[in-house]
Fold:
Amino acid sequence: MTVIEIDIVFDFISAWCYIGRRSLDRAIALYRKTYPGGRNDTITIKWRPFYLNPNRHGHSVPKSVLFNERLKDKTPEQRAALVKRLDKIAQSVGVCINYARMIGPDTRDAHRLVYLSREDGTISSEVHGELVEKLLEAYHAREMDISRPEVLKEAAVAAGIEAAVVEKWLAEDVGDVVDKEARKYREIEGIIGVLRFLFQGKYEWDGEDL
Structure:
């Protein structure tokens, strides 16, 4: 039996991270089905924080505001082409990307929950990953503001974490630890875009190639 360790650097606001999450699930399922002995291998996935293009307004704003700011150098035709390509790839892996409603000032609290689920020895790797899935779904498919505590709690409970544990985590002050880890990936490792996969601690793969 082989133990495969995968670290994934990501941020919730990236549609490519949602697409990559689903693509990875498909790749793992195919590996277990076709690779000799693959169904018996242990695959452990840890999700790592990254702050991609933070909302500099300091409060929740419509997604369209940041969309227009980030693509201000693109023509309307170029913007439409980007959205069309993204939607086509998203549909191919069974996810829905919506662009309406609000985006919070940052994704720090969502990353705090994921960090705590990763570091808590009572939480399985599967539940840790399901929390990421539920938060990505809430943001991209359900058009929810994942900076809001009630949205975070709903997603975590849906992932299989007890409500009392979620409430404790939301009150736990680990923001500085998460910030430090996120800075490491940007400032020390030089990552500027996500997803970024690291296999067995040494083999890197840029998820933007998905």
Remarks:
- The longest helix spans residues 15-34.
- The chain has a mean pLDDT of 90.
